[in-house]
Write a structure and sequence with these properties.
The chain is α+β, with helices and mostly antiparallel strands and 138 residues long. It is built from three helices and five strands, in the order βααββαββ. Strand 4 and strand 5 form a beta hairpin. Helix 1 packs antiparallel against helix 2. It is globular.
Length: 138
């Protein structure tokens, strides 16, 4: 398990997902799996920086990840108060189409095999199983 701590800055988030993807590729994960991991991790880091830590560069994001033959598991935690994932409006409903929130959680759930949040709502765990296919693209 690798552990990282970064300040709440998007440039630091880019460094993290580049490192995770490089490690996943080195472990033989496919381009499509790496695409899914990058997309979900980018959303998780962006949410932690903007919504969790409110763009406060003095606050940190903790990232733990483990890459095995079977799966990539990543946990992202922020220092914010958390949220209730089941209270995020469904961004696909007509009344929410113009709402700027909720798409990140939807994308994480669509592209990862498992997505879970801690009780406080300030940590998300993303799991991508090696043999799990991406959703079909239209």
């Amino acid at each position: 398990m690798k552990k990282l701590s970064i300040p709440s800055k998007l440039a630091e988030a880019a460094r993290v997902h580049d490192q995770v993807i490089a490690d996943a590729r080195a472990s033989g994960y496919s381009d499509s799996a790496c695409f899914a991991i990058r997309l979900a991790l980018d959303e998780a880091l962006s949410n932690a920086i903007h919504h969790g830590n409110r763009d406060d560069a003095s606050k940190h994001i903790g990232v733990q990840y483990d890459i095995t033959e079977k799966a990539v598991s990543i946990t992202v935690c922020d220092e914010g108060p958390g949220f209730k994932p089941d209270k995020v409006p469904d961004p696909t409903l007509d009344e929410n189409l113009e709402c700027p929130h909720g798409r990140g959680v939807m994308l994480m759930r669509a592209y990862m095999t498992h997505v879970s949040f801690n009780d406080r709502g300030n940590c998300v765990t993303l799991v991508k199983e090696r043999n799990c296919k991406l959703p079909e693209r239209a």
